[in-house]
Amino acid sequence: xxxxxxxxxxxxxxxxxxxxxxxxxxxxxxxxxxxxxxxxxxxxxxxxxxxxxxxxxxxxxxxxxxxxxxxxxxxxxxxxxxxxxxxxxxxxxxxxxxxxxxxxxxxxxxxxxxxxxxxxxxxxxxxxxxxxxxxxxxxxxxxxxxxxxxxxxxxxxxxxxxxxxxxxxxxxxxxxxxxxxxxxx
Length: 185
Hints:
By secondary structure, this protein is mainly α.
């Protein structure tokens, strides 16, 4: 009976190839997250470009947008740290590849080493799953904060417009009382 258990694995790729493939998937996900943050930045810039003469409102809105950007910057910095950790893990995996090459000569110890590597891979899967969950939570929170800030901007803008309308109506009434012809410019 053959004791080489590595031949029984359903995936014919080497351990290193499978680990690198997982890291490539993680990198792709982080790239998509970066693209989403760029989209949020673009949307915020478009909103700033359509600003009205509402200086006090916009000053508050800009302050909140700045705070949101700072929070996004912190999230991006956190993601950069995760990317650095992933790069470190890739380096660690390269070191593991060298170790595995050396272990091929010791057939009797191979079974125990494969079991240990399976446990490590399971731990890595759990870590990636946890990171994915944490990132999803952070993404939801960022979306919620941005939506909240945008809603506040709209409320301020509507209130300001109503105040302007009221002011114009009062001015017209005063002009009529004084006998001046209303200015409709």
